[in-house]
Amino acid sequence: MNSIVVNLRLQDKHALLTGAAGGIGLAVATAYLQHGARCTVADIGAQPTPELGALISAHPDTLHYVRTDVTELAQIDALIAAAQQRFGPITTLFNNAAIFDMAPLLDSGEAMFDKMFAVNVKGAFFVMQKVLTQMVAHKVQGGAVVNMASQAGRRGEALVSHYCATKAAVISYTQSAALAMAPHKIRVNGIAPGVIATPMWQHVDALFAKYENLPLGEKKKRVGEAVPLGYMGEPGDICGAAVFLASDEASYITAQTLNVDGGSVMS
Ligand SMILES: NC(=O)c1ccc[n+]([C@@H]2O[C@H](COP(=O)([O-])OP(=O)(O)OC[C@H]3O[C@@H](n4cnc5c(N)ncnc54)[C@H](O)[C@@H]3O)[C@@H](O)[C@H]2O)c1
Asked: Ligand 1, from 198, 203, 207, 260: best to mutate by most atoms within 8 Å of Cβ?
């Protein structure tokens, strides 16, 4: 008789995922569920997107949605309380919510700076800090954080200065938090994706078209062709690293930001 061996690498974990109503976050939530985790998903929309709604319908006992704006600290507290009430202490954080915008450096004004840093840095930091506080309070075993950085955090870009700076901050906070949490045996790592075909990239392509005077779709085509592996990634291309870093298989890995980018950045 044939038997199928299913390796549930996140069994008994409770993962909190931000910005997971679509794109990479939704793909990683799907993978975490497949590996046995209970998942609390947060995003800014009042209701789950249709794609997330379908996932909740398929996993009503192991997935729930909490509307949260990560720039509001009171909403982060409410999210963590709701998550704990539903599935117990959070063991795993996929810290993913972010926004993208760009402009020539000399035109990158205060409003864009404030908005990008509010979501990508303040939101990411306080979600992480508050989840870590709860992990320490509950003496969570096998606690792990995966922060979503970017290849943009490795190197500046003339047109993308604020976004690059926010993602460099995520890499730095990942290192500091990993050191702060090492005595508690909680691991903190990051992922630096390259270019991944998500809703965010429709917005990115349109902005590059405007500033580089390109037809729509041309920037996306060019960046995909420039990847050493020869194509733009899909959200599912992030899942292997996201599951691994969250799992106990990565028990001796902390303070790292892993490039998942088809070879674009070398470390
Ligand atoms: N797509 C890429 O090429 C790429 C490359 C490198 C890094 N990343 C990073 O990967 C992560 C996921 O990106 P994606 O491409 O799936 O983008 P996306 O835009 O599809 O997803 C981001 C999610 O964050 C949510 N969000 C935005 N502001 C929020 C707020 N204030 N509170 C709560 N949720 C909020 C959005 O609603 C959205 O669902 C981001 O951190 C992004 O910076 C993406």
From this structure: 198
Q: What average pLDDT does the structure give for the chain?
A: 97
Q: Name the residue at shortest CA distance from atom 8 of ligand 1.
A: 150
Give the distance, in angstroms, between the CA of residue 32 and the centroid of all CA atoms in the same chain.
13
Across 106-133, average pLDDT? 98
- Structural domain boundaries, residue 163: 14-194+235-260
Ligand 1 atom index nearest CA of 193: 6
CATH (domain of 255): 3.40.50.720
Is residue 224 a part of any domain in this protein? Answer: no
Neighbouring C-beta atoms of residue 110, cutoff 10 Å: 7
Give residue 54 CA to ligand 1 midpoint distance, Å.
Answer: 20
Residues across the chain: 267
Q: Residue 87 contacts by C-beta under 8 Å, 6 or more apart in sequence?
A: 14, 38, 40, 64
For residue range 72-102, what is the model confidence (pLDDT) as tens digits?
999 999 999 999 999 999 999 999 999 999 9
Residues 26-67: pLDDT tens digits? 999 999 999 999 999 999 999 999 999 999 999 999 999 999
State the pLDDT at residue 3: 58
Active-site residue flag, 163: yes
Q: Are 15 and 93 in contact (CB under 8 A)?
A: yes
CA 259 from centroid of its chain's CA atoms: 13
Identity of residue 175: Q
How many domains does the chain contain in total? 1
- Which is the catalytic residue, given 65, 163, 173, 211? 163
* Assigned domain for 59 exists: yes
